Amino acid sequence: MKRIRSARRRGFTLLELMVVITIIGLLSAVVVVSTRGLPAKGRRTKIDQDLRKILTVAEAMYTESGRYPESIQEMVNPKAEDGTEMSMGLESYPKDPWQSEYVYDITSGRPTVTCLGSDKQPGGDGEGVDVTLPKPEEGG
Length: 140
Description:
Layout: H1 2-8, H2 14-35, H3 38-65, E1 103-107, E2 110-115, E3 131-133
Antiparallel strand pairs: 1-2, 2-3
């Protein structure tokens, strides 16, 4: 009798398999829903870090040389007028998450840096929205 009983309990029943598959499906759905916004957040974080780094380097170059750089390219491995390396610079030319160049400009005597977003054009919404540092003054 012992043999018959152990032979009967070797596999899983259809109901047990259905319960396990349902639980795995529910857990998978929770993971997908909770992680779907992470790539967009990661791109935004990269943009914010790049813009801050560009502005920090521009300010450092102003402190050392008395003028703001005219382009981002000028900030890559910068050299002083005497040929020595400046204390702060960019190691390479930064690009946004869509592999476009940031827009650098001197506005009212101060540097501004803009990422044009995924649409690569001024304006836009969602991931196509422009990000500018320092933030433009509101009002007027």
